[in-house]
């Protein structure tokens, strides 16, 4: 059964650095190891982490596909400035089939997805620049990529509850 991620309970997370994402990833991994971690969206913990890792990999090494010119033009004109602002990334965005390269492997074990995300975050922290164009926004800077990844990871990781509690309502 598919979950409406706009209405699913999630934690209100906000990251301003890759180090903060790594710290949250440690909390999630502890919850996985303790058997307490749960999710409220449509993906498992491993799938969430692998998806976030694949987007970082694309920013570092390039993406195979990109949105059509008109979509990129509209996205840049209407959504880029808000994407760089303080508001969180919205939930419930359906990716087109053409974005398959960033879809997670269905059923990837949680430990593997976590390890992949940790590896990509550490690769950037070790000096790998994110210089490849966004498939949606086109050419952006390394620092703009950091902002996008921090918001992207916060949005997806908000569906993960390391201690199993789901008391918080959806963030608006």
Please tell me about this protein's structure.
A two-stranded antiparallel sheet has the order 1-2. The chain is an all-alpha fold and 172 residues long. It has one domain (18-88, 101-161). Helix 2 packs antiparallel against helix 6 (142-157). The radius of gyration is 15 Å and the shape is globular. It is built from 6 helices and 2 strands, in the order H-E-H-H-H-H-H-E. It starts with 17 loop residues before the first helix and ends in an 11-residue tail after the last strand. The chain is 47% helix and 2% strand.
Give a nutshell description of this structure.
The chain is mostly helical. The chain has helices spanning 18-34, 45-61, 69-78, 80-84, 110-125, 142-157; strands at residues 38-39, 160-161. The protein has one domain.
């Amino acid at each position: 059964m598919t979950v409406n991620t706009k209405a699913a309970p999630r934690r209100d997370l906000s990251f301003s650095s890759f180090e903060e994402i790594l710290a949250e990833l440690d909390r999630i991994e502890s919850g996985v190891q303790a058997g307490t971690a749960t999710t409220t969206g449509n993906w498992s913990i491993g799938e969430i982490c692998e998806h976030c890792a694949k987007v970082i990999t694309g920013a570092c090494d390039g993406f195979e596909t990109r949105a059509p010119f008109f979509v990129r033009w509209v996205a840049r004109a209407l959504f880029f400035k808000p994407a760089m602002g303080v508001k969180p990334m919205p939930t419930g965005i359906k990716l087109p089939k053409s974005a398959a390269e960033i879809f997670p492997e269905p059923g990837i074990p949680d430990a593997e997805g976590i390890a992949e995300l940790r590896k990509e975050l550490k690769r950037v922290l070790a000096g790998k620049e994110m210089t490849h164009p966004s498939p949606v926004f086109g050419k952006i800077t390394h620092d703009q990529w950091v902002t996008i990844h921090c918001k992207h990871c916060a949005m997806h990781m908000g569906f993960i509850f390391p201690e199993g509690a789901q008391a918080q309502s959806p963030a608006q």
